[in-house]
Amino acid sequence: MDKIFEQLETLLERYQELQELMSDPEVINDTKRYMAYSKEEADMRDVVAAFKHYKELKQSISDSDEILRETDDPEMEAMAKDELESSKKEIDEVEHQITLLMLPKDPNDDKNIIMEIRGAAGGDEASLFAADLLTMYSKYAEKQGWSFDIIDETDTEVGGYKDVAVMITGTKVYSKLKFENGAHRVQRVPSTESQGRVHTSTATVAVMPEYDEVDIDIDPKDIRTDVYRSSGAGGQHINKTSSAVRMTHLPTGIVVAMQDQRSQQQNRQKAMQILKSRVYDYYESQNQNEYDEQRKSAVGTGDRSERIRTYNYPQNRVTDHRIGLSLNKLDRVMNGDLEEIIDALIVHDQAQKLEQIQSGEAKLF
């Protein structure tokens, strides 16, 4: 804790300096510079306010102690004791708040996401489970007030998905869903099982931050684009026009195929949007050591092959293996009630970051 508070005075000085700079006419007339200072000031605002309140409480405790040492007035003594007790109780809460505010922040937390769900081991049952996960996330997004749009899908004859990609937009989407990366395992009796045996199947989930212009710039020469006729439902229009698009990013080998839109131009736009996000995620996760370490937290590496959660239908139980959390309300979870699991993952991640700070393995703020 001392390590954290050592930095707060310096942070406060920088905050005061930023406020002075933002009132300087020369800075105000330089839009780019002003915006940069504004963002830095906004990022500090909450922790500075909490630190100022902490200092006020420390002063209040000191004043109350002094009154208790010097006063002989019973009424003053009673007031000082009440004030001292109240301030000591509140200062513990403010210390915890400051600690959380000072934890290293994921630069992608405020972003929208592209989520990919794929049926993995288990054939038709895996594709059906992929569809169930899609519904679960859709209902959770609805509860959060987010937008949820399917942007690519390959369905199966039994009504499931071989793979499906969705765009989820709203407030701090990535911060809440980033821990969903990995393999999700289901244990249940498939609808096709005649003898009532419980089967185990898996589906994988990948969560990628939405592409942003400042994040990555792909050279058009690195993209090969092929067009072809769409398959599946869609009527005569689908059959007569080459509206489907396949884009390949040559340096990474990442391929995106899009055919769910009516026109080739719409499919191009959607394919490019997904391609950029996949390439961005590839470079972030493969080529940046700091990003890699961030993903290898106690809640998992983020690798899609890692089994992170089991959904046991016979026992109505869901278990997150990374934090040892089991809840006997699978029916509610599949209906989008993910808050308890996600909140537990966030708290666990915060605890791990705090541990790293205290051991000197991570930087603050």
Overview of this structure, please?
The structure is a single chain. The protein is of the alpha+beta class. The chain has three domains: 1-101, Methane Monooxygenase Hydroxylase, Chain G, domain 1, CATH 1.20.58; 111-211 and 296-357, Alpha-Beta Plaits (2-Layer Sandwich); 218-289, Double Stranded RNA Binding Domain, CATH 3.30.160. The protein has helices at residues 2-22, 25-28, 31-70, 74-101, 123-144, 173-177, 235-240, 264-287, 289-295, 330-333, 339-358, and strands at 113-119, 147-155, 161-169, 182-188, 199-209, 223-228, 244-249, 254-258, 307-312, 317-320, 325-327. The chain has an eight-stranded mixed beta sheet with strand order 2-3-1-5-4-9-10-11. Strands 6-7-8 form a three-stranded antiparallel beta sheet, covered by helices on one side. Helix 8 packs across helix 9 (289-295). The longest helix has 40 residues, at 31-70. Mean pLDDT is 82; it is low at 232-239, 288-292 and 294-298. GO terms for molecular function: translation release factor activity, codon specific. Belongs to the prokaryotic/mitochondrial release factor family. The modification N5-methylglutamine is found at residue 236. Residues 229-245 form the Prokaryotic-type class I peptide chain release factors domain. This is Peptide chain release factor 1.
